[in-house]
Amino acid sequence: MRKYLFQRIIYMLITLFIIVTATFFLMKMMPGSPFNNLGGKMTDEQRVLLEAKYGLDQPLPVQYFKYMTGMVQGDFGVSFQYNNRPVTDIILDRIGPSAHLGAQALIIGSILGVILGMIAAIKHNTWIDYGSNIIAVLGISIPSFVFAGLLQYYLAVKLQLFPVSFWEGPIYTVLPTIALMIFPMAICARFMRTEMLEVLGSDYIELARAKGVKNSSIMFRHAMRNALIPVVTVLGPMTVSLMTGTLVIEQIFAIPGIGEQFVLSISTSDYPVIMGTTILFAVLFVVVILIVDLLYGLIDPRIRLQGGKN
Amino acid sequence: MDKESNNLHENKFQRVHVKEELSEELARPQLSFWKDAWIRLLKNKGAITGLILIVVILLLAFIGPFLNSYGMNDENYDAAYLPPKVKGLEWLGFDGISTIEVQGTSVDDAITRGLEGYEIDKEFVLDSTVIEEPNGDDIEYFKVSLDVDMYAANGLEDQYFWFGTDNMGRDLWTRIWEGTRISLYIGVLAAMIDMVVGVLYGGISGYYGGRTDNVMQRIIEVLSGIPNLVVVILMIMILKPGLLAITIALTITGWIGMARIVRGQVLKLKNQEFVLAARTLGANDKRILMKHLIPNVMSVIVINTMFTIPSAIFFESFLSFIGLGLQPPHASLGSLIDTAFDDYRVYPYMLLFPAVIISLLMIGFNILADGLRDALDPKMRR
What we know:
The complex is a heterodimer of chains A (about 300) and B (about 375). With about 300 residues, chain A is mostly helical. Helix content of chain A is about 75%, strand content about 0%. Chain B is elongated. By secondary structure, chain B is mainly α. Classes of the chains: A mainly alpha (about 300), B mainly alpha (about 375). The interface between A and B is large, with 47 and 41 residues. Chain A: It holds the Pfam family BPD_transp_1.
């Protein structure tokens, strides 16, 4: 176990190193400079001064080295856009709404998904089962931004049940959370249904029935617990979908989160912010995958983790 | 008793398996694997619905733009923001009538202001209803909704824009189907490239094993740690946004899943007797891999490719939505949705049609892929 953990962390660091390096050099290759936008308003002298101020006139390897040493110390440079605000500040400032929304969508989505999948499996081949299947297919198929748009139009603009946008209280989180949680919910429901069906057909459930255990007890204490184990594996794809989702959902609902900032920074070529956010996403992703793998090994001792073999 | 046993004479019995020559014959007509799978697929109602959906959308994507006389980029500023209108379908809401909301200090003031703002003559207002009246406050505030025949107001009674027009007066029917074609093209192309790269990579890695496998697997392990989203966004930013950039970005990490699956299958198959037989007969590595192993993995490859197409379509529209996708005047479903978002509160039809089509397309591909998986590989049911 310890050897496995060690090995995984080494791979994780290599991956992160490659991501950071690639991000840095790709950023530098990008067309356009942050000072292009000012056009004719700036003389060449001013441009040189500005570039010197932000260290953009130094050779690439020097810039790279400076960035890497800064990053290890938690310093991602300063934004070009907001009067020298440190990137770390900007990210910390905006991580709140994103984390709130993400956690809310993840928790509600997976709980609802598990319940939906369980009911579908218990009522196998009835209209409840078909209904939950249809919900799952819709949730997986309909792009989150389309869903968000439709929700916003019908529930907020037409029926005026919820505020259209912004982030000013619990009621403002309802629509974005629904839009964001639909995919995790659908994946969870699907997975739970298959696992539950498999568990319900197994010998120990039959034995429990033969012993005369109450039906509800069979469902919750025997079946659900065992069916839940493999559902942990969908946490990976769920995190990815949440990351992708926040980019568009935050934009649609005008939520001051990281995703909205990221899209904004892309359009203004604010390199340091883009790089900082990319690295944050990458770290989040890699860490979640590692946790999922470890969790899986802990919960289900039958799965032996050995040297990263599939 | 005795009499009865006498009745059961040997002659009265007939041996069942007596026709030796027929015992080798099969009762049912022999079906190839693919034919069998096809029959199983046809029995799956969901999968067939998906298939029909895809075929209909595919047909419309190709012939749709030719069904009316408007071109992809025919701008006509007189016809900007016209709602959908179809001859014979007026009762379904395709009547060319827009509902606009106007505000003012009195009902009349609201209407005059609104008509001035939208540059519409009063005679084209078919109906008006007051939505909001001042409720006890001192503020004189009226909100009135007007039903306006936009086609008549713009002097275009003889025109029919089936899905309406956009901000530049371009016909949305044509643009939406052209956009669908591009979305489909990107999805299929990306899936094909993923398939080729993934199958080769996974096949070679699994077949040769040993050190080759080890090195190739470590590369995959590092690559798969990189979030797809990040790679795609970075690639799009350094390449010029467009068809090529999107395709490259989508395929740069997209093949990993396929490579892993193919490798696993090849590892399982390569020690079986038929491979040994082929080798004994003198087949070389390339022949064994291409003629014996890959065909046996084909069902898994098909299933995986079918799941890649909708995810590629989704990613393309996602990129277009955040402004990194196709650039105007080109259009894909994603970029149409993106433009529609600017003023969908006033012109909801602009968002509705592309949103419905992309959803139907995704649903179609997803349920067809599910059905294919059940038909080709019942053990893989998840």
